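Help wanted!
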Amino acid sequence: MTTFIDYLLGGFSSGAVIALFALALVLVWRSTRIVNFAQVGQAMFTTFIALAVQVATGSWILALLAGLAAGAILGLIVYALVLRPVQRLDTSGSIIATFGVLISLQALASMIWGGDPKSFAPPVANDGLEIAGRIWPISWYDILVYVVTAVLVVALTLLFTRTSLGLSMRASAFNPEVAKLSGIRVNRMLAFGWALAGVVGAVAGVLIAPTASLSPNSFDILLIFAFTAAVVGGLDSLIGAVAFGVGTGLVLALVTGYGEAGDAPIVVLILLAITLVVRPGGAFGRGKSRAV
Amino acid sequence: MMPSWLRNSRLLVHAPLFIAIWLLLSRLNVIVEPLMSYYIALAAMYATAMFGMVILVGLSGQVSLGNGALMAVGGYVFAVTSLNWQTVPILGMQWNAVWSVIFAGLGGVIAGLIIGMLAARLRGPYLAGLTLGIAVGLPSIAARFPGILGGSQGLMLTVPYPEGGYAVDSAAAADAAVASDAAALDQALSGASAAPSDSASSSSDMLTPSDVTGSTAPGDMLTPSDVTGSTAPGDMLTPSDVTGSTAPGDMLTVDDVTGAGSTASADPVPVPSASAISATPSGTVTDAGFVLEQWQASVSIAVACIAGFVALNLVRGRQGRVWKAVRDDPIAAALAGISPAASKVSAFVVSSLFAALAGAVFAQILTYVGPGAYGVALSLSLLVGVVLGGRGSLVGAVIGAVLLVGLPAAVSNLAGERGWSDQVTNNLPTFVYGLLLVVVVLIAPGGVMGLLSSAWRRLATRR
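Answered by r_m:
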C-alpha cells in the first residue's frame, strides 16, 4: 500500500507538467481550432533559451522569466508567420505546417545546442523529503511544480471567466464573425491565445527540465502524453486538460512502477485509441453531432 | 479483336509504361557507380511507401504521421520470417526472400486494416495525433519483445541473394565513398594492410553473403552490420550505438546511419583478422555482374515499379474517384451509394500494404531492422516527400523521393566544402525539410507538381 501511494505521489509531479502541455494545446485549439503539434517543440526551444540564461546569470527566476518571454514571442511568431495564413487552408494544411515548425525547431536546436542531453539545475532541492521517519517521493521542487501549476490554472480560469479580455477571447473563438461585429479585434485575440499557449508551454518546459534531461527531442513523448490528455479531456476544456493531464501522469507512474518503464507509452497509446474509438470527438468534448 | 474490358482498360497503356520504366532503371542501375545504385535503391524504396501516402493523404484526405511505423511492420515481418522460417507454413515449400516480402505485405494489410478501422472514425487532428502516437510508441513495442524482435538493438539480416551469389566490387565501392569521405579510404587501405593474410580469400571472385558482411571494407558505405564488421570483436558497436551516435537530429535517416558508420569506421580500431578483407586489386566486376548495392537497388526498383503500377491503376480507376469523392464531400458520396467508412479503411489498407513492402525493401537495404531505423523521422520523411512532390500526385511522390535522397547528399557535399561541423551538417537537411513543409503549404499547396501544372496551364492559355 505504501508503494502504491509512493507511485501515485511520484506521478503527480509529471502529471502536473503533462497537464500544462495539455493546457497549452487546449488554449491553441480554443482560439484557432488547430492542434499545435509544434507546441512541445516551442517549449523545448524556449527551455534551451532559459537554460542559457540560467547558465549566464545563475538565477532560476531570471531563467523562468526569459523562458516565459521567449515562449510568448515564439508563439506570436509561429502564429503570425505560419498559422494566420494557413487558417484559410484545409485541416491537413495546418497539421502539416505545425509539423514543419516542430521539426525545423528541433533541427535548429540541434544545430545550435547539439543533441547531447543537458541538465538543468533546479532552484530548490529535488531530493525526497523526510517526514515522520521515512523518505517520501516528494521534494521541495515537486511542491514548487504543484504550486506553479495550480497558480497558472487558477489564473487562466479567472482570465476566461472573470475578465473582459477572456470574454473577448472566448467570443472570438466561438463565433469570429459576430465577435468582429461586436467590435472585438478577433485577430489580436487569436494571436493572444497563441502567445498565452506559448507562455504556458514555456513554463511546462522549464518545470520539467530539471527532472528530465533537456535535449532537442526529449519532449517528443510528452507531446503524445499531452495530446492524449487534451483529447480525453475534450480539447476544449481547461479543467478537462488539467484533470486528465494529472491522470495521465498517475497512469504513467503506476505502469512504470508495477510494470516496465518502456510500457508506459504503449499504455497511453491504448488509452488514446480506446477514447477515440468510443468518443471520436474526445471523451468530454461537447457532443456535437456530425453527419458521417 | 480484343475483348472490350481490355480495350477500355488502361492496362494496355500502364503495363508497357511501367515495363519501360523498369527496364530503364535497371539499365541505369548497372552502369552507374555503386554509391549511385545505393541512392537509387533508397529513392525507389521511398517512392514505394509514398505511393501509399499519396493515396492516403492526397486522395483520401487522411493525414497520417505514422506510416513509418507501418514500414516497420513490413521490415520486422521480413526480418523475423527470413531469420526464423525455413519452410512456408501450410504450403511446406522452401522459404525464400520473396515469401518474406509477401508476408511483409500481408502483415501490412492486417496492420492497415486495424489502424484504418480506428482511423475511419477520426477527423484530421485526432487521426494525426493517433498515428503520431503509433510512430512514437513503436520503439517501446520493439523493446517489449527483445527475444523475437531484437529489442531496442534490432535484428541483423543477411541480404537474400540471387542464384550464384553476387560480387562485391569493394574497390569501386571504396572509390565511391572517397567522394564523400577521404578518411574512409585511408582506413580502407590500412584495414587491408592490417590483414594481408586474408587476401587469400580474394582468389575466389564470387563472394558468398557471409563473406560480404565481414568483407565490406570500412570505406564501403552500407549498414550497421558494416559497422559491427569493421569494429574489434571486443568492442562491438551495436545498432543502438549507431542510433546513439546519430542522436543530434532525432531524424535518423539512412544517411545518418551510414554517416555514423563511416565516422565509426574512421576510428582507429583494429580490423578483426577473422574477417575476410576483399583485396580485389581494381574495379573488376565479376561474372555475377552485381555489386551488393546494385542487387539491392534492383530489388527496390522492381518493388517500386509493381507498386507504382498498382497505385496508378487504382488512382485512375473507379476506386480513385471513390476516394476523392469521400474526401471532398462524405455526405454527398454516401448519398451516391458509396460507403465513406469502407473507402477510408481501404485507403489505409492500400497505403499500409505499400508501406510494408517499402519497409521490407528498407530492411534489405540496411541489412538491419531496428526501432531507430523506423523512427518518427521516417514517418516525417514520407510526409515531407509527399507534400513537396504534390499531395495528390504519384509523379510528385517520385519527385519527393528523389528530393528526400538528394537533399541530404547535397547538404553533406556542401558541408564538406564549407567545412561545417557535424552538428550542423547532420541537422541541416531536417531543418530544410521543416521549412519546406511550411513554405510549400503556405505558398504552393500543390507541391512541385502543382507548380508545374499551373505553369503549364499559364503557358497553354497564353498560346
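OP: Thanks! One thing I noticed: The mean pLDDT of chain B is 71.
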